[in-house]
Amino acid sequence: MSTQRETLQRMLQDDKIYILPGVFECIGALIAEGAGFSAIAVTGNGLSASAIGMPDFGLMSMAEVVERSRLIANAVGIPVIADADTGYGGTLNVYRTVKEFEQAGVAGIHLEDQASPKKCAYYQADQKLISADDFVAKIKAAVAARSDKSFALVIRTDAFRIQGLAETIDRCRRYADAGADALFVVGLTSLEDIRAVSAATPIPLMVNTNDGDKLASIPLDELRAAGVKLLAYPATVRSAMVKGVGAALQALAANGNTNKVLPDLAPISSLSKLTRLAFYQGLEHSLETKDDRDS
Fold first, then answer.
1. DSSP of 174-233, one letter per residue?
2. For the chain, what are the domain ranges?
3. Which of 12, 17, 18, 149 has the fewest CB atoms nearer than 10 Å to its CB?
């Protein structure tokens, strides 16, 4: 886990831009790693839908999110950034939250300044923020809780949609001063706003986009030049799953078989390769052979 954390810290310091697909279970995480992504993010929206079948309204407990994130982080060799929502309470809750996620083996987390219960930004719901003072206290609690200084604290603000650019910049400056390793600003849609936020703070900037959104049409080089370090695509895996699985199961229900959608289905050999079946078969054989010799 320390290697993954060190890798993420190096990524935050170099001059490249990185795309982070959002995942919520191990198959998606393994596919993302196999596709060559340098890091992945656990998406709270996808996790809530996958784990409990409910919208992302802060309904999952810390323990549920930590356990899912632990499984994902242990399945891959690349850094995993987990969604820790608002830290699940006050400053002491944040302190424990950081301890739990650190022990789970993720490379870092992002914490947000919404009031509890939070609501996913995609829903355009009635979101509320806590005061900057109160959130600074949470950031300081997170910094104090870290045992591994390479564990990344990506501090998120939803202020742009709610209170505008000036308040966003003010909060970003305060959050950076409080000890954030990177800032995650939700809702930015133009290079001008990205440049303004990036220029105002000395630490790396993470933004998110949806497939087909305005930011998704801007070349990566332009986003990098404007100051983007991490570009999250939280919905891609979830959206592909909903459509792909839906089409396959509708065909099965309608026809009694999947013959019409076979070209869209991966063979079992693909899953076997993804989960390193040959490696584990060989490992089992070598261990059993060794046990036979020892006996």
1. HHHHHT-SEEEETT--SHHHHHHHHHH-SS-EEEE--TTSTGGGS-HHHHHHHTEEEEEE
2. 2-233, 265-295
3. 149
Indicate the burial class of 46 (C-beta count within 10 angstroms; 0-12, 13-18, 19 or more). Answer: buried
pLDDT, tens digit, 9 for 90 and up, residues 150-180: 999 999 999 999 999 999 999 999 999 999 9
**Residue 164, C-beta contacts closer than 8 angstroms, at least 6 positions apart:** none
Q: Is 196 within 8 Å of 166 (Cβ atoms)? A: no
Cα 267 from Cα 256, distance rounded (Å): 19
Which residues have a Cβ under 8 Å from the Cβ of 248 and sit 6 or more positions away? 258, 261, 264, 265
Architecture per CATH, domain 2-233, reads as Alpha-Beta Barrel (3.20)
pTM of the model: 0.95
